[in-house]
Amino acid sequence: MTRASTRKPRRAPMSSAAPAAAVADTATRGPGRPRSAETHQAILDAAVSLIGAKDYRDVTIDAIALEARVGKQSIYRWWPTKADLVLEAFTEHSLSRMPPLVPSADAFADLEADLRRFYAFMRNDLVARGVRSLIAEAQLDSDFRAKLYDNVHRVRCTALRRVLRHGYELGQFRDDLDEDALAHVIHGAFWYRFLAGTRFPADDVYARSVVALLRPALARDEQRQGGVAERKSAGRAAKSSRTKAGEKMRAARGARSVKAAGR
């Protein structure tokens, strides 16, 4: 009597499509039970909320799990580190919520609209506090700084390049400009004021002013003259915005003085 073999039958080779499907399934589910969209969303919401209220270093995985009402293993199943979780929260979760930009036949108007929607997004108190906290942490941690650059700054630059290339295709923007340098110039104006805590004009006024200043560098020769009136108009709007802000501050100081004198 021969001894029965205990070997398991050999599996058939996977088709070429199987590895891709397996990878996609792992990315969607992670090991263990199927990925819950509600749980995933709750974790991202919790991360954004806590980073907006505390410094990055003061936010722990334990705190995020408690805020999201999930176990820590649910978090580690999808994100290997706190940095990966927080950066996804501020890119795919937050930046993706900006309204999409629909290209038009006016590339300068598209650029203004793109900047306006970004400024409005960053004006949100929760987002602003969170981003400042992440930038502060990046000054102390070079690995985190590299991830922050890839996940936030590079994402914004990519979106801006789409607007610029649309302008090239329309024949309205020069096609010999350095896209990287231009993206840094455009965003540098914003980040300087954002980090310095300088008061911003209204989103539409500031976006219009930036585009008006850039027009001579961006526009093809035949379009530069047409931007003179727009630059003057944007300058007047920015000056008016500053004047109104100054009047409000003076009125507030006057009201405080009257109140103090009456005591």
Describe the biggest sheet?
none
CATH class of the largest domain: Mainly Alpha
Could you spell the SSE succession in H and E letters? HHHHHHHHHHHH
Tally of extended strands? Answer: 0
Q: Can you give the helix content as a percent range?
A: over 70%
Number of separate helices: 12
Spatial gap, N to C terminus: 110 Å
CATH superfamily of the largest domain: Tetracycline Repressor, domain 2
Structural class: mainly alpha
Features:
single chain; 263 residues; Arc Repressor Mutant, subunit A; 12 helices; Tetracycline Repressor, domain 2; mainly alpha
Describe the structure.
With 263 residues, the protein is mainly α. The chain folds into 2 domains: 33-90, Homeodomain-like (Arc Repressor Mutant, subunit A), CATH 1.10.10.60; 98-257, Tetracycline Repressor, domain 2 (Orthogonal Bundle), CATH 1.10.357.10. Helix content is 72%, strand content 0%. The radius of gyration is 26 Å and the shape is globular. The N and C termini lie far apart (110 Å). Residues 1-6 and 8-30 have low confidence and may be disordered.
Compact summary:
With 263 residues, this protein is an all-alpha fold. The protein has helices spanning 17-29, 37-53, 61-68, 72-78, 82-94, 107-123, 125-138, 142-170, 179-196, 203-218, 221-224, 228-261.
